[in-house]
Every structure is written in C-alpha cells, then in structure tokens.
Amino acid sequence: MGLLDFLFYAFAAVVVIQVVFYLFFFGKFAFLKQKKQTLTNVPVSVIICAKNEAENLKNNLPKILSQKHPNFEVVLINDASSDDTLDVMEHFQSLHSNIKIVDVKNIEAFWGNKKYALTLGIKAATKDYLLFTDADCMPVSEYWIQEMTGKFTKEKTIVLGYGAYSKIKNSFLNKLIRFETLNTALNYFSFANAGIPYMGVGRNLAYNKSEFFKTNGFIKHIKVLSGDDDLFVNEAATKSNTIICDSKNSFTESIPKNNFKSWIKQKRRHISTAKYYKTSHKLLLSSIYLLQFLFWVFATILLISQHLWMFVTALIVLRITTQYVVFGAASKKLNESDLVIFTPFLEVFLIFIQLTIFINNIISKPNHWK
C-alpha cells in the first residue's frame, strides 16, 4: 500500500469519525428542543467585576437594573481602576438601592488578580444564587435573570449561558470572532448536555454560592491570572449539578474587538488556561481540533494529487454537508444563522489561527487582566 493509499484510508477514517461526532454529539445539542420552563423568582446577586470600565458601565448597567425580576441585587466590584469606574458605580448606587459596591485596592500578594477581586465580591453578595457577567456585556432581554436563574433546582446548581458578540456588517473579523464564539459554545453546551461539563463563560454564568465554597473558591488556580470562569467550572461542574440555558432571552451580548491584534491577544489569554483542564477534557478537545486539522490537510493533499479524487470529493461533500446541517441548527438556536454559509472558510482560517496561538503561547507567556 502506497503513501497516498494510506492517506486516503486515514482521510476516510477522519471523515467517518467526524460525521458520527457531528450527528450524535453536537447534533444532540443542536436539535434539542427547548423545554418550556416556569420562570422563578429566586433571590440572586448579579456580580460584575470592572477594571477601567466607566463607559461600558454607563451603557450597560441600565439594561441590568431594568430586569424583570423582583428580588436581585447588583454587586459592582471596582478592581483598582484608574479611570472614573468607581464614580460611575457610586452614581448608579445613589439612584438604586439594590446596588452594592466592593472597592478593591491592589495588594502585593494579589496584584492585578481578578480572582481576588471576584472573591471579595462573592463574599459580599447577600444572595445564595450568583449570576455573573462582564462590564462590557448587556442582556439581550429584560428576562435574562429570570431565564438563567429559572434553571436552578435542588440538584442543578451551575447554569451555563451563552455570551454572544454583536454583529458588525461587512467585517470579516467580526464573523471570525462570532464563529469562534459559536464553536466554543457548541463545544461546551454539547459536552454539558452529554454529562461532561468542562467550561463556561464569565459573560453569562450562574452558580450557587455553596459551589464556590465547596471548591474553596479559586484557590487551586489562584496563581493563574485568567480562568475565573472556565477553570472554576472545570473543577466544580459535574454531570449531576450542571445544566445549560440556551433560550434566546437568556443571552448576553458584548462588543467584539475591532482589530486582529487585540483579538489575538484576548484569545491567547483564553487558550492559555486550557492546559489546566482535567486530562480527559484536554484529550477530547485536542481530538476535536486534531480531526479538523487532519481533515483539511489530508483533503488538500489528496485533491492536489488527484488520488481517488471522486471518492475523496464524495467524502468531503459528506463531511461538509453534515457540518452544515448541524451547525445550521446550532447557529439558528444561538442567533448566528448568518455565519453558516461561511462555515468551511471560517473553519480553515480559525484552525490555523489557533495553531499559531498555541505555538506563540509556548514561546512567550500572554498578558492577562488589564
């Protein structure tokens, strides 16, 4: 058997594995029908940690304070800001009695550590249920709190939500950022739905305060400056205590980066935490990435060589069609349908950007919390 024959059989195996994975793993989430839930009014503390976010707070806090929920407080954490963040917080506090401010000063042991600031905010919260978002995020509806906290039960104490990015017309970078966000959400929602929760996003995440103290907070990864969301969920989440919330009224939305340099810097910080995930999670995520990478490399080599090109083309069509169907359903559920048509192109671009980031993170350490 020649090298090209070996590549063809390897390519066929990659396609079969991916098709099965798309249909029975991603597809289980993508085609999952949402159950109509009864909205509850559990008391909740909305926690926002801000560092130099004066303008974002001015724009986004009104959306949070106007939520249709009868019993919530907003814990605003000023993490040693050098701008007018604290003044903005105090202005809103003078107008709303349900705002609590935690003003954090830098100390040598935890200089610039967001987890230290968050820990102080969590301890200051008076409610048992905590809902997290960022200062640069806003809820897409006035029922965000009710939708997210409505998922809490006696058993389900961690709720994973979706944090979208706003759409910018005629911007390739915007499509790429949103495509990467959609891919990440498809991964963590599908894993959680299959009973293997491994991460969440701090832009839209809720959990019972008891889960925080049960794991001793962020202590196991306190020296890792990022990962207050994904590393916490990776440690605390289990099949029995975690649930997803994918209703459209539960989403948050952020303004995305407007240049490649800023976005790459952000992704370097995010990806740098993945090495601290549980071994089983790292193996699964690495396998997904490796299969995507091998699909495009093998397909390119086989098409250029024209080796069994009809069979190769058929396998490519099978894989991409399956991906379109599953991604189409998932993107519709997460309000990202305009990305579907660009899926193959965006996937190739994202694969090589991620590879570049992996290499850069090995060579040099990324910067962290502002």
Strand order of the largest sheet: 3-2-1-4-8-6-9
Low-confidence stretches: none
The number of distinct β-strands equals: 10
**Helical percentage:** 40-55%
Shape: elongated
Distance between the termini: 55 Å
CATH superfamily name of the domain at 44-175 and 194-257? Spore Coat Polysaccharide Biosynthesis Protein SpsA, Chain A
The pLDDT mean sits at 92
Count the helices. How many? 12
Output the keywords.
alpha/beta, elongated, single chain, seven-stranded mixed beta sheet, 10 strands, 370 residues, 51% helix, Spore Coat Polysaccharide Biosynthesis Protein SpsA, Chain A, three-stranded mixed beta sheet
Provide a descriptive summary of the structure in words.
InterPro entries: Glyco_trans_2-like, Nucleotide-diphossugar_trans. It comes from Siansivirga zeaxanthinifaciens CC-SAMT-1. Belongs to the glycosyltransferase 2 family. This is Glycosyl transferase family 2. With 370 residues, the protein is of the alpha/beta class. The protein has a domain at 44-175 and 194-257: Spore Coat Polysaccharide Biosynthesis Protein SpsA, Chain A. The protein is built from twelve helices and ten strands. α1 (3-30) crosses α6 (172-193) and α6 (172-193) packs across α12 (343-363). It is elongated and about 75 Å long. The protein starts with a helix and ends in a 7-residue tail after the last helix.
